[in-house]
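Two proteins, back to back. First:
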Amino acid sequence: MQRALRTIIGVVVVVVVGAVACSTAPTADPPVPGTTTTTTAPSGIALPPRPRDIPVDGVEPCSLLTAEQRAALGLDGNPITSTGSTQIFGSARSCIVRGSDPLEVAVGITLVTTTGVERFTGGELAANLTTITVGGFPAVLARPVGLDSFCSVELDVARGQMIDVQFRDGGRKPPVPLDRLCHGAEQVAGEVMASLLAH
């Protein structure tokens, strides 16, 4: 069981490492409630300023989705907290939770205190990027190039800090379409931001 949990955590949090190296032209998705698309650019995206800083030092990642929020999102698995190191973020704390109805998915919420959202906006990563606003804060919707099994939202919460919200296919056939994964990532990011603002 512990091996299986470590596998889930590794897949959800670390898979983005294999998907990044250089950027390509972005594609835009329809915004979900609570998010606003602001602009797109092929590389070197400039985000609007944050309304204020909300440092995530000391925040428990699994506290950012309440039981009620998880139920509304169809995430019926038990949240798992993990601390690990990735090539992109360095050491970071994550919360992993799975869902099985209506979709078989896995969600990863990673609190990053080693680098800010500029890690994604600098034009070095292999992802189609769209700038959005989540809960009044700037963010990036990142669709990985060459992979269609996950989508992520990168929340700009403080100088040198960010929250990575990844929404990943859970392995059921047929697989969840990438557009639906990106929609799910935006939904989860909206809930995470609402919880963070309420802290």
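And the second protein:
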Amino acid sequence: MSDSAVLQLKPCPHCGADCDARDKRCWLCHADVTENAGEIVDAVVVPEAPPHYAPTDTLFAVMAGILAVLIVLVGIGSAVSEPGLTVMLLIVVVPALIATLVRIQARKGRVGYVSWGEKLATFLISASITVGILGLLGIACIIALIVFCFYELANLNTH
């Protein structure tokens, strides 16, 4: 380790902030740190962490294309074995995809750039909203069926 990677620190007698041992004033409270200086401590300067991985737009487009192909293949596979699942897949994926494309284009028009994370989050939120709406419609259908059954039972007893 080189000498430039070691920094000597001393505490400020007024606020306690760690200051460079060569400084005359505290970086935080601007008090004089030459008087009554505390113990000088060697501190190792740690290099910055590497930046987080963020795929480029091209890589995101390739990953989105692969995902689209996988969704199509799952749709074909489910159409062969269980056609009802294909209908459910289309009911969830197609509106979410259309909503995502519309929202992304609108945001691109306002901001000019949309990151891959925003695109992915928009699709997941759209798909979640679609599933939530389908769940609410299912609950509404069950409630309507129960009300209808009670109505028919009430009419059956009156005749």
